[in-house]
Amino acid sequence: ECPESFPPLRNEAAVRVLQGRMKGIQGHCNSCYMDAALFSLFSCTSVLDSMLFMPFPLCDRNVQGILRDEIVNPLRRTGFVRASSVMHLREQLTDKGQCSSFTNAEKDPEEFLNLIMQQILGIEPLLKLQSGGQKEQECYCYQIFMDKQEDLVVPDVQQLVERSFLSSDLKLVEIPSCFIIQMPRFGKEYKMFSKIIPSLELDITDLLLDSPRECCLCGDVATLECS
Question: Which interval of the chain is the signal sequence (predicted)?
């Protein structure tokens, strides 16, 4: 355990602490969905650090303490988290979620995020989406759904998000404080892409609902959008 708080790793410090053997979150018993999610959310960014400290209305302080002291702080301090620490969290989630398979089965990361953010910590949804002018939906993360496209061999995240939003006729109702995106590369049997290039910045201009944008022909404020 590491009760002392540490800031997220940045730049050269991230490379120094996280690179090499016995680094990252140790996998055990189909934990990869949770390991990858926790590493992405906390190793190099503080945008969700409120999950670790704030006393939300429904917050389970025991789970919050395990997440902060046994997983996030050791990861930021030494770059390594033991599988037993993640199993401790999985056991607590099993108790809270009435789902025995959290300790041994492969899960969808979205199921884990919904459980820990909504039911255990009571955080407000991070995303507001609208599809085809219908009622807006609230969620914690966005999972990319799209058909196989032959022109995308090694896509980047920007391309995948834009095409997924376009195919589903989706728009972001507002700029999200945190945009968690699940890639279409999951499961043991099928992977749509062998590799996906991370986009270090994500341009969501065209994904925002009613956002003023420039006409690509005349340069004035656009009044029409062509898919």
Answer: none
Beta bridge partners of 24: 80
Which of 72, 102, 120 corresponds to the end of one domain?
A: 120
- How far apart are alpha carbons 28 and 111 in whole angstroms? 19
Which pLDDT tens digits describe the chain residue by residue (227 residues)?
A: 666 889 999 999 999 999 999 999 999 999 999 999 999 999 999 999 988 988 877 778 888 999 999 999 999 999 999 999 999 999 988 887 667 788 888 888 898 999 889 888 888 999 999 998 789 999 999 999 888 878 888 999 999 999 999 999 999 999 999 999 998 876 667 778 888 999 999 999 989 998 888 898 999 999 888 87
Shared domain for 95 and 30, answered yes or no, is yes
Q: What DSSP assignment string belongs to 192-205?
A: S-S--BPPSS---G
- What token pair was written down for 198? 């991370």
Q: Which whole-number Å values give the CA distances from 85 to 9, 51, 91, in the listed order?
A: 20, 17, 10
Alpha carbons 221 and 164: distance in angstroms, whole number: 25
- pTM to 2 decimal places: 0.85
**Euclidean distance between CA atoms 117 and 59, whole angstroms:** 9
| Strand, coil or helix: 222 | coil
> Which residue carries 């960014």 as its tokens?
45
Same domain? 130 vs 112 = no
